[in-house]
Design a protein that fits this description.
This protein is of the alpha/beta class. It has 14 helices and 12 strands. It is globular and about 75 Å long. The two termini are about 20 Å apart. Bound molecules: pyridoxal-5'-phosphate.
Length: about 425
């Protein structure tokens, strides 16, 4: 159905006709008895194959590190020097200030928050849990599992608007004047789910701003650091350097992982920060484990070799992912392009397409898609407490299904969105 006018400009009769046609299109999908899933940003089986060769490594009695450690044995809490060196660029810190953890960066974030609550961080007057209230700023829409950690531990979340260049810094600078604000979630590159990348100005203001809490921390989750979908490879300013230059050397905790580089369930997670913060993290981590899985660290070094190897590996992912993202945005453009009821960013990286619809249309879209056999991330999931005040944002995750399935799913999504927006217009 070619869209000729914005929904808001249609006459009552034309809107009726549009609704009838769109409902008929949806019924045609329903009749196919499909079962599709676009809920989570999981690598596809095809992507996992890219790292198949890694699983046989190190192998052949290759278990000695450059420093002559036996990677099979206990020890080296911080991680092998060669692994830290390989990911130093990604983490934006010298290898001495990079820590390699287990397979999940989320676990490292979780532990850092628990330790902050129980012990405080460098610069804290007391453990965070001894404060009357702890508040985190949450650029929203954002990553639901970040918000779930806060909810788990009773940390109050304040949503912050996103501008397309990161969080609204006027709002952030105002909010951090409250000493209860101890932390802020940031996904600075190809953000989950809006795919936006923080501008230099945003990063500088985050580094420079005056916070009432002396132990305020940025939880800088650079989960999509090398996850490009186009040749325009986004770069962000180095937050650790900017914070140090602004006189706040301990402000940023940086996280990342190879979950979406090698294998999502058995990759490597990383933490990087100032010397004081790394020392603090290591003192806590040393009570938790005698040492990480160094065979996996060696396996990653043997397989990826160097930064060029990592970049070449990420190009394979791009080859698999980019057509799926194009299928989504093409379908959105074809169906919603002229309606004036939906906006989205065409992602240049990351794992998601975020769509903003007419108020109330997000949960309606999810319900309609379900009727057609398509599972979508629940409406509201991208907001603190699962509550999108406008019920307007949806996160689409096209990585896992096959390209053929993504194409069908995208058409269904676009039809459901068009219908939900038209219904909202009619109401
Ligand atoms: N951070 C962000 C922003 C994510 O989108 C994800 C996964 O979707 C994660 C962290 C999870 O990372 P990990 O697998 O290292 O726990």
């Amino acid at each position: 159905l070619p869209v000729t006018a914005a929904l808001a400009d249609l006459s009552a009769a034309d809107l009726e006709a549009f609704l009838a046609k769109t409902r008929a299109d949806l019924d045609a999908f329903k009749a196919r008895g499909l079962k599709l899933d676009m809920t989570r940003g999981k690598p596809s089986p095809e992507q996992l194959v890219f790292a198949e060769g890694m699983l046989a490594l190190p192998g052949n009695r290759d278990h000695t590190s450059e420093a002559n450690e036996d990677a099979r044995n206990y020890g080296n809490l911080q991680g092998l020097a060669e692994t830290r060196k390989l990911f130093a660029g990604t983490m934006g810190a010298p290898a001495e200030r990079v820590v390699v953890g287990g397979n999940a960066s989320l676990a490292m974030m979780h532990d850092v928050i628990v330790w902050a609550l129980l012990k405080g961080v460098p610069g804290s007057a007391r453990p965070w849990s001894k404060e009357e209230e702890i508040v985190f700023l949450c650029p929203a829409p954002g990553y639901d599992r970040h918000f779930a950690i806060c909810e788990e531990f009773g940390i109050r979340m304040i949503p912050v608007r996103l501008t397309g260049e990161g969080p609204d810094m006027d709002q952030v600078e105002e909010l951090v004047r409250d000493p209860a604000v101890k932390g802020m979630w940031c996904v600075p590159k190809y953000s989950n789910p809006t795919a936006e990348t923080y501008s230099d100005e945003t990063v500088r203001r985050l580094a420079k701003m005056e916070t009432a809490a002396p132990d305020f921390r940025l939880f800088w989750d650079n989960a999509y650091a090398v996850h490009h979908l186009t040749d325009a490879k986004a770069e962000i300013l180095n937050i650790l350097d900017e914070c140090a230059a602004a006189g706040h050397p301990d402000r940023a905790f940086v996280f990342a992982s190879t979950s979406k580089m090698t294998v999502a369930g058995a990759g490597l997670a990383f933490f990087a920060s100032s010397e004081a913060n790394v020392k603090w993290q290591q003192a806590r981590a040393g009570k938790q484990t005698i040492g990480p899985d160094k065979l996996n660290q060696l396996r990653h070094v043997r397989f990826l070799k160097d930064e060029a190897g990592l970049a070449a590996h990420m190009d394979k992912h791009r080859g698999s992912l980019a057509p799926k993202f194009k299928a989504v945005t093409d379908a959105l453009q074809a169906r919603l392009g002229g309606l004036g009821a939906a906006t989205w960013i065409t992602p240049a990286g990351g794992y998601f397409v975020s769509v903003d619809l007419a108020p109330g249309a997000a949960s309606r879209t999810v319900a309609l898609a379900k009727e057609a056999g398509l599972a979508l991330t629940p409406a509201g999931a991208t907001y603190p407490y699962g509550k999108d005040p406008q019920d307007s944002n949806l996160r689409l995750a096209p990585s896992f299904p096959t390209l053929a399935d993504v194409k069908v799913a995208s058409e269904i999504i676009a039809v459901c969105m068009a219908l939900a927006c038209a219904e909202a217009e009619e109401a």
